[in-house]
Amino acid sequence: MAMLRRRKAPPAPPPPPPSEDHSSASPITSSPKAEVNETQKAKASEKVRKERKGRWSCLDSCCWFVGVICSAWWLLLFSYNAMPASFPQYVTEAITGPLPDPPGVKLQKEGLKAKHPVVFVPGIVTGGLELWEGHQCADGLFRKRLWGGTFGEVYKRPLCWVEHMSLDNETGLDPPGIRVRPVTGLVAADYFAPGYFVWAVLIANLARIGYEEKTMYMAAYDWRMSFQNTEVRDKTLSRIKSNIELMVSTNGGRKVVVIPHSMGVLYFLHFMKWVEAPAPMGGGGGPNWCADHIKAVMNIGGPFLGVPKAVAGLFSAEAKDVAVARAIAPGVLDSDFLGLQTLRHVMRMTRTWDSTMSMIPKGGDTIWGGFDWSPEGGYECSPKKHKNNDSHASKDEGASKHKNNDSHASKDVNGASKDVDGETVKSQSQSVNYGRIVSFGKHVAETPSAKIQQIDFRGAVKGNNVAHSNASCREIWTEYHDLGWAGIKAVADYKAYTASSLLDLLHFVAPKMMQRGSQHFSYGIADNLDDPKYMHYKYWSNPLEIKLPNAPDMEIYSLYGVGILTERAYVYKLSPSAECYIPFQIDTSANGGHQQNCLQGGVYLADGDETVPVLSAGYMCAKGWRGKTRFNPSGIKTYVREYNHAPPANLLEGRGTQSGAHVDIMGNFALIEDVIRVAAGATGEDLGGDQVYSDIFKWSEKINLRL
Predict the structure, then answer these.
(1) Distance CA 671, CA 299 (A)
(2) Kind and range of the H or E element at 119?
(3) pLDDT at position 459, please?
(4) CA 559 from chain center: how many Å?
(5) 3 state SS of 260
(6) What is the average pLDDT value for the chain, to the nearest integer?
(7) Where are the alpha helices (DSSP H) in 442-593?
């Protein structure tokens, strides 16, 4: 019976979880404790959740930033595609008033039509380069642009990019296993990068009056190489000759209008001598080839006599902008961070580009000035200066306008014009010595030459190699590593360099580079142009050592911007830590203040287009080739057409339609109109002759060159 009673008894409650010891507690007594524990757990969980919610991690910031950028990008992209095509123009006109017609539209309304074929000759760095053969690090880049376009490979594999963009340090040609070639066609230089035009605006305006690809030709070449080597490796000069002959023959015998830009001006100057010279050194076209095939050469921003900026680039791999960047972020461009010694890689690469040596100043002290004088002496670094020459832009005949400039120059030199030769100008003329292109220290740049004690560097013994103590220096070799401390000190002790001594300086600090360069370029002034030695190709890009073609009906224009302060001379200092680094750099602490505003950040500035000084761009057409001279025996007519710089009024104008800057001038409406009119058959007289805002005629008269 006892067994039956046990079976009928109610079942016991289930045992508690093993982790908690509740075996001795009854269900009634354990319930309140469980509820308390659960409440505490819930409160703790809520507290942790709130703490996590309030905490902001770096990952959260990154995700938020990427999300905002992507959202904004897609919103802008949607808005851009949704808005009417005329909306940007409508906004611009609402702010600035009605926009003028582009030159092509304006001249089309006047009835102008395509007549003479046109040939574009791009300058340094503006033409695209693509890979045809490379090392393993460049796999997947066949026929992809290494230069121009998006420059994506610079960021993805920078050291590989530097290796493939460099030329052989001995020959100036391709390194073993690497072939980089120029892009061909109009796309070679229409845009330098997406949205950054070079030739595109001019091409589009020419198309408005009927030009198309069969009447336009982009004479693309490998701008890194010496001019003669482009023929040796790629037969580029021969192809230009053949294309011009084809364009003339297929367009009813109409001669071409050639439009070189920047260094392309020097390249085409070389071509005109090459095409007439007998083979094998030349093209064998004979002395009348240019007269038979070329109507006009319209040089844009031409560095005929070189640019001081080239000296700074070769000497210290910098210019004004780089020097300012280095001052803002000291050590970044020289640092070893991630093995990217930026300026040393740039120097190693650019010193293999022989073309850069074509822009070393030519003519020595005769052209650029000496220790105590320069043609631009007395220049005021003020945009108001150009108002003095507004009369030169009138539509008078070119010859009479030249005469007006001469009388104005005489007036300025004699000091009768008090508004020009006042106290400010006099102060400037005493302190700015543009002839000292490189000075070590601001005090050296300003001191009278009689008080400067120079120690000749030419016989200095190089030694105490600065690169021995650092392995990375040996990996990124520049010729400064062989110069040694003694050589570096000797360069600084010479104190100041004019255009003539600069050549000796470059031979001293970069003998291998200059040895290559001396085989392809020359920088002097010819005593006797009939001397047979000037038949060698190394003289053909120097206008002071060659004769223009025998083509009396041809015209030569110099078109360039003015009104922008342009690099003319430099104040240097020794680098604070010269071991392994480039030992010289522009002294950005050197400023002139109110009394000498032409000195800014270690750079003496003069009038120009931001890259080429007026003196280099304008002298040959203003005086050196004007009329019949020994450099222009057939009397080819020359014209100087200057375009006074006016920056864009607002951001909606982009790079502006009145810019005089070295590249942006390619979108200058006035310049484009001049080019189109000549291509459609006009002459320099039809354009109104010279158009001058600067003191180029006054400065030209100060140069004592036998003509």
Answers:
(1) 11
(2) strand 118-121
(3) 76
(4) 18
(5) strand
(6) 82
(7) 442-446, 471-475, 480-493, 499-509, 511-518
Can you say whether residue 514 is alpha, beta or left, with left for phi > 0 and alpha for psi between -120 and 50 degrees? alpha
DSSP string, 1-69: -HHHHHHHSPPPPPPPPTTS--TTS-HHHHHHHHHHHHHHHHHHHHHHHHHHHH---HHHHHHHHHHHH
Question: What CA–CA distances, in Å, run from 178 to 149, 231, 522, 573?
Answer: 20, 18, 29, 38
Tens digit of each residue's pLDDT (9 = 90 or more) over 461-506: 776 555 444 555 544 446 777 777 888 889 999 999 999 999 999 9
550 against 485, higher pLDDT = 550
101 is catalytic: no
The SS3 call for residue 632 is: strand
Alpha-carbon gap, residue 54 to 14, rounded angstroms: 43
Q: Is a pLDDT exceeding 60 seen at residue 396?
A: no
* Range with the largest mean pLDDT of 67-71, 240-244, 591-595, 651-655: 240-244
Radius of gyration of the chain (CA): 34
In the predicted model, is pLDDT for residue 118 greater than 60? yes
* Among 487, 493, 440, CA closest to 460: 487
Over the stretch 438-466, which tens digit does the pLDDT of each residue have? Answer: 999 999 999 998 899 888 888 777 765 55
Beta carbons of 482 and 466 less than 8 angstroms apart: no
8 A C-beta contact, residue 601 and residue 586 = yes
Residue 30 is a catalytic residue: no
pLDDT digits (tens, 9 = 90+) for 13-49: 555 555 444 444 444 444 555 666 677 767 777 766 6
Catalytic, out of 358, 662, 664, 695: 662
Please provide the DSSP assignment of 186-235 as one string. GGGTSEEETTEESSHHHHHHHHHTT--GGGEEE----TTS-HHHHHHHH-
HSE toward the beta carbon, residue 267, CA cutoff 13 A = 31
Residue type for position 45: S
Measured distance CA(283)–CA(688) in Å, rounded = 36
Question: Which tokens go with 664?
Answer: 């942006």
Q: Does the annotation count 334 as an active-site position?
A: no
CA gap 107, 605 in Å, rounded:
37
Residue 89: band (very low, low, confident or very high) from pLDDT cuts 50, 70, 90:
low
Backbone angles phi, psi at 694, to 5 degrees: -90, -175
Q: Which residue has the higher pLDDT, 655 or 89?
A: 655
Catalytic residue chosen out of the listed positions 166, 226, 262, 694? 262
Mean pLDDT of all residues in 292-315: 96
Q: Look at residue 146 and give its three-state secondary structure.
A: strand
Cα-based angle 183, 228, 171 (whole degrees, multiple of 5): 90
CA–CA separation, 582 vs 577, rounded Å?
9
pLDDT for residue 610: 94
The encoded tokens of residue 671 equal 């310049």
What band does 93 get if pLDDT is binned at 50, 70 and 90?
low
Q: Which residues, at least 6 apart from 611, have a Cβ–Cβ distance to it below 8 Å?
A: 262, 301, 303, 307, 309, 566, 567, 662
Question: What's the burial of 651, exposed, middle or buried (CB within 10 Å: 0-12/13-18/19+)?
Answer: exposed
State which amino acid sits at residue 294: I
- DSSP, collapsed to helix, strand or coil, labels residue 117 as coil
pTM of the prediction? 0.82
| Cα gap 248→217, rounded to integer Å | 12
Residue tagged active-site, from 190, 334, 607, 609? 609
Q: Are strands 294-300 and 584-586 parallel, antiparallel or unpaired?
A: unpaired
Lookup result for tokens 């109009």: 186
- Distance, in Å, from the CA atom of 28 to the CA atom of 13, rounded to the nearest integer, reads 12
CB-based contact 646:658 (threshold 8 Å): yes
